[in-house]
Specification:
Blueprint: H1 2-9, E1 17-22, H2 27-37, E2 45-52, E3 55-62, H3 65-72, H4 76-79, E4 84-90, E5 105-106, E6 112-120, H5 123-132, H6 143-157, H7 160-168, E7 173-181, E8 188-193, E9 198-202, E10 205-209, E11 221-224, E12 230-234, E13 237-241, E14 247-248, E15 253-254, H8 270-276, H9 278-286, H10 306-311, E16 314-319, H11 321-338, E17 342-346, H12 347-350, E18 361-367, H13 373-384, E19 388-393, E20 406-409, H14 422-442, H15 447-469, H16 471-481, E21 486-491, H17 496-510, E22 513-518, E23 535-540, H18 546-557, E24 562-567, H19 574-577, E25 580-583, H20 592-610
Parallel strand pairs: 16-17, 16-18, 18-19, 19-20, 21-22, 21-23, 23-24, 24-25
Antiparallel strand pairs: 1-4, 1-10, 2-3, 2-4, 5-6, 6-7, 7-8, 8-12, 9-10, 9-11, 11-15, 12-13, 13-14
Helix pairs in contact: 5-6, 6-7, 9-14, 9-15, 11-14, 11-17, 15-20, 16-20, 17-20
The structure holds 5-amino-5-deoxy-1-O-phosphono-D-mannitol (M6R).
Length: 628
């Protein structure tokens, strides 16, 4: 019964990115440029279909987008006159990541082509049916089914928009699609359900894309499609209808975006650049919110007044991956500063059980992209149960942000590297502002402590800069440990989440088996793994649990583990216990996770770089995880 409720809300399965253009300009560069900006959505294969002299031609290549660019480059002169096309970047769900399965896909005669984000759940049944009708399938994808299905409808109604409308009525699942047909010149038809899609409006031209960066270089005027709306675009017209063929008035918006620079600004990788952006991100986030130690925090985005806050009996935070680690720190400080009980749960777990969120629960969804399927579903479920929804995201224009009653945009700027760094930092700062803001309203924190924390926050950017200035030492340590196959990170209290995040960073970009543990748990099992082949990195921030981690580190050292410390202490004792010590500036224990993560990001980065890994686009991953 519970699962049924979930399906009613609508499941969301999207990876990949799509882009389309119809107008007067040469289309190939527009498509390739757009795909470059969508590469964060996948990089298993890429393809384009363009109309050349009223004939459709397809170019597809497996692997990185660069492979497609290399394929197309020698044809650019020939393709120059083409002014309509669609493109796709893939993160494989159905079918191996090879050229045959790359999009676009076409119908049997090749006249109809389609690009698709999403998963067609009933594709197997449809595929059999279409095969019996004589359709010839070339790939293993669910998408190809849709190409044949739309072509079959087109054969009946001889109208592309209607064919798309009738075909999409027959499919279950999620999709955003762009379709072209050789017999319908200068026309793109696009539609979506539970997957983002927007139409950019230019002068006698239209763009379609999964996300703003793909089109923002060309236009700031756009229409976000709602589910089941179908748009038909020609260079001179945009017609929007619903699934009953009723014409709708498009809601035109101005995109609050600047052109997206994808420059590495002289850094070798985006990840390193993004790590270095963190001091200014902290500064910008605090500016205007903490005006002075003795003035209240200004967080107008949060629409919770004293009465509502008093009525809250708990807070539920839902998130995935790195955002989940930020949420764990959020729980710690919200409970400590505000005296409200807080639960944190991976969204993917939260959505498959009977949860008890209600109108007395504040539900916080945390997501860099705002497009993570599980978190969107978790938030939607809680909204249905009457909870106030607060979203902390780097994408205030995202699907998740649209569900928010209160929205905290973390303003980290576009994050290109798949490994989240600066967005984590911005999420952390947002949690501190939120916790202190609620504590201030409730009067649940001593004023001296509150003032000290506000002051401490303001001093953090300089401390972060100091760490970055001393990155050489971390680079050397990285070289020394790069060839170890396993790594353990330990911490206690607030920094347990820092240990998890440090381990996740190392895992995802270097593929080293790194695990984070609460230091006190080591002796309950993991200590059995320790020997001289296992580096243990202890996060030892001065404060309540410092001595405890010291003892836990002694225990690890006694098992011959290679010991590394990350600390803000100048305690001499550490020199005997640890082989390597990364020292960071002193900071209030409560604020320590904010700067303790920076050396761990750098360590992961330098290890991966030393090993020659693809730092910004690690294998098997995509930036927005929009499938379950
Ligand atoms: O966009 P989101 O913050 O919702 O994404 C959640 C995770 O997929 C993400 O944090 C992932 O774990 C990152 N690759 C971590 O670096």
């Amino acid at each position: 019964m519970f699962l049924k409720a979930r399906i009613l809300i609508g499941e969301i399965y999207i990876m990949c990115g799509i882009v389309g253009y119809v107008g007067k300009k040469s289309v190939v560069d527009i498509l390739l440029n757009g795909l470059t900006k969508l590469e964060y959505r996948g990089y298993d294969s890429a393809g384009i279909a363009v109309s050349v002299d009223n004939k459709i031609e397809m170019y597809k290549e497996e692997g990185k987008l660069q492979n497609l660019k290399n394929l197309v480059e020698p044809k650019k002169d020939y393709l120059k006159s083409s002014t309509m096309g669609i493109g796709h970047i893939r993160w494989a769900t159905h079918g191996a990541p090879n050229t045959i399965n790359a999009h676009p896909h076409s119908c049997t005669c090749g006249k109809l082509v389609i690009v698709h984000n999403g998963i067609i759940e009933n594709f197997k049944e449809l595929r059999e049916e279409l095969k019996n009708d004589g359709c010839v399938f070339r790939s293993e994808t669910d998408t190809e089914t849709l190409a044949h299905l739309i072509a079959r409808e087109y054969g009946k109604v001889n109208n592309l928009t209607d064919a798309v409308r009738l075909a999409t009525k027959q499919i279950n699942g999620a999709y955003a699609i762009c379709v072209m047909h050789q017999d319908v010149p200068n026309t793109i038809v696009a539609t979506k359900r539970n997957a983002p899609l927007l139409v950019g409006i230019g002068q006698n031209e239209y763009y379609v894309a999964s996300d703003v960066p793909a089109i923002i270089d060309y236009t700031k005027t756009a229409v976000y499609l709602d589910d089941n709306q179908i748009v038909t675009l020609t260079p001179d017209s945009m017609k929007l209808i619903n699934s009953f063929s009723v014409e709708l008035q498009p809601h035109i918006e101005t995109l609050p975006w600047e052109s997206v620079s994808l420059s590495k600004m002289g850094f070798k990788h985006f990840m390193l650049k993004e790590i270095h952006e963190q001091p200014s991100i902290i500064r910008n986030l605090l500016s205007g919110k903490i005006i002075a130690d003795n003035q209240p925090i200004k967080l107008d985005e949060v629409k919770l007044d004293l009465d509502t806050i008093k009525k809250l009996d708990r807070i539920q935070i839902v998130a995935c991956g790195t955002s989940l680690h930020a949420a764990m720190i959020g729980k710690y400080i919200l409970e400590d500063f505000c005296g409200i009980s807080v639960d944190v749960e991976p969204s993917s777990e939260f959505i498959y059980r009977k949860t008890t969120t209600n109108d007395k629960t504040l539900v916080i969804g945390v997501s860099q992209s705002g497009e993570t399927a599980d978190t969107i579903t978790a938030v939607k479920q809680s909204k249905k149960q009457g909870s106030h929804i607060l979203i902390i995201t780097n994408r205030p224009d995202s699907t998740m942000a649209r569900e928010a009653n209160s929205l905290i945009p973390v303003n980290a700027g576009i994050e290109v590297s798949v490994a989240a760094t600066k967005s984590y930092m911005a999420q952390l700062i947002s949690f501190y502002l939120l916790a202190l803001h609620i504590a201030e309203i409730k009067g649940s924190i001593e004023s001296a402590k509150l003032m000290a924390l506000k002051h401490g926050l303001i001093t953090l950017p300089e401390k972060a800069e100091e760490i970055l200035d001393h990155k050489k030492l971390i680079q050397e340590i990285a070289k020394k440990y790069a060839n170890f196959k396993n790594f353990v990170f330990v911490a206690r209290g607030l920094n347990y989440a820092t240990a998890l995040e440090g381990a996740l960073k190392l895992k995802e970009i270097s593929y080293i088996n790194a695990t984070g543990y609460p230091a006190g748990e080591l002796k309950h099992g993991p200590i059995a793994m320790l020997d001289e082949s296992m580096p243990v990195l202890s996060i030892m921030m001065k404060g309540m649990v410092y001595d405890k981690i010291l003892s836990n580190s002694e225990e690890a050292k006694a098992r011959d583990a290679r010991m590394i410390a990350l600390t803000n202490s100048d305690d001499e004792k550490l020199n005997d216990l640890f082989e390597d010590i990364i020292r960071i500036p002193d900071v209030d224990e409560y604020l320590s996770p904010i700067i303790a993560i920076i050396p761990l990001q750098l360590l992961a980065y330098y290890i991966a770089e030393f090993l020659g890994k693809d730092v910004d686009q690690p294998r098997n991953l995509a930036k927005s995880v929009t499938v379950e």
